[in-house]
Amino acid sequence: MPDLLFLLGKVGADPRITDIRWSAYILATAFIESSHTVRVTKQTVDKKGRVKTHKIKVWRNFTPIEETGHGKGRRYSLPVKVKRLPSGDVQLTEYDGDQRIVSAATGIGVSLHRHQKLGVKADSKPSGRYDDDDDDDDGDEDFFFGRGYVQLTWWTNYAGAGVALGQGLDLLIDPELVNDPNTAYSIVATGLYTGGIFANGRKLSQFFHGGHTDYVNARNMVNAGVSHDAKVEVAKIAERFEKALLASRLNAEVAAR
After folding, report:
1. Phi, psi of 13 (to 5 degrees)
2. In this model, does residue 167 exceed pLDDT 60?
């Protein structure tokens, strides 16, 4: 409940979120992307008064999380070396040795060598340039698997998110920052509102405006490749949130009279 209340507070205080359907879809996205189980310790007392300790699984929602399996087998799961330069830009070396200079102003990486391709295959082996003893690719090794409320992946999205939020390349330097609740909210809300970061150029106002409501296809902002049934699942959750938000607004108006 505290995690949900935190998100409700963030959405309610966000001046960009002017449509209750936008609020509902942000909450639905956070719910579906961050729900997971955790093990907790529970104590019980038997009939003889003896205290017993049990490990049980409980469902947790609305909290930033790391992707299950850290994206194992996917190209974005491979390590990347990151080094901040005196200029504020970042020198980045991918697992196959490809190098780029990432601009602190734009978050865009420019290749240092010809014939480089963004990303590597999951079974790639490091080239001679990706070597801990080589000064040309020194830096801290980081991983850019899914994190946050919306499971941000790929170093390019971490760099772009930081710039979009006015944090420069901080998220590229320290990807764990994406799991900070305030940062995680800013990423999901900014992405859905602007169509940037992870949202593939699609934004809330395209799916919800005036009398037009399209909770099903709104899923294309986050994951256009999922099945229709998966989109319907998120849509139903969003519709429930919309009803709850409308009811709470009506109750608040009645109480204020």
Report:
1. -95, -5
2. yes
